[in-house]
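User: structure tokens for Pyrroline-5-carboxylate reductase, please.
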Amino acid sequence: MCQQPSIPLISEKIVFYGAGSMAEAIVRGMIARSVVASDHVVVLNRSSNERLAELRARYSVLASNDPEQKTEYLRTAPVIVLAMKPKDAAEALRTLGPLLNPDQLVISVIAGLTIRTIQGLLGRQQPVVRTMPNTSSSIGLGATGISFSKEVDEKGRRLALNMFEAVGLTSVIDEERMEILTGISGSGPAYIYYMMEAMIAAGIRGGLSVEQSGELTVQTVLGAARMVQQTGETPAALRKKVTSPNGSTQAALEVLDKGDFFETVIAAVNRCAERSREMGAALEKELSK
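Assistant: Done. Predicted tokens:
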């Protein structure tokens, strides 16, 4: 029997204004899961033809840094995803504002950039969706926080949710909670990778091969996450189950406790949230210029 081609969930053209790792992760995830057709995705950046050529070759998307083409894409796209570096956002948004019509949906994936600041730099009360995804979106296992401006209608809310639900879990939150979410899930993969680096290094120093130590660490982290997910038990409960009194696991955890591991992780999350606020405050200052 001939299999029917899947119909993309989103028919609107989506323009990614910025071509960094987060933009690529979302593009890869959406195309892989038939959320949107590749010829309905446009990626723009400021200067790098090489980067755009990479994205065209990998995903068959449209891509351009030609000023006239960029202007036309931005002027006509139903959905624009802000994915440039924070330092480039103020200038880009001031240029973008006059091109927009009231029906275009603006979705931001820029850390620290508030809805108020986005609308202020655009110079208009545009429908804005503020999000904080993570790069696991590229394999359909992302975690994305989402907040909506009051101008976003039900169609816009559904479109934004469709985009990010297709590449992982979504959580609609009040915007004032976005910084702490950034500290947990936005930057969270990096903390886990860092822990994995240390575990792999310990295995190698103990005589395991690079491959053995890497495979064992990856499977251990994957298995631990799945145990929490599938059993419904808390991490604390599962930890206690595998920690025998005076055993080797307890000895290892005592070493972590001596290094104040628990509070250090909390401090890292809070510092990430604080830094996100700092970046947002720096962008907000651009409103007075």
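User: Anything notable?

Assistant: DSSP finds twelve helices and eight strands in the chain.
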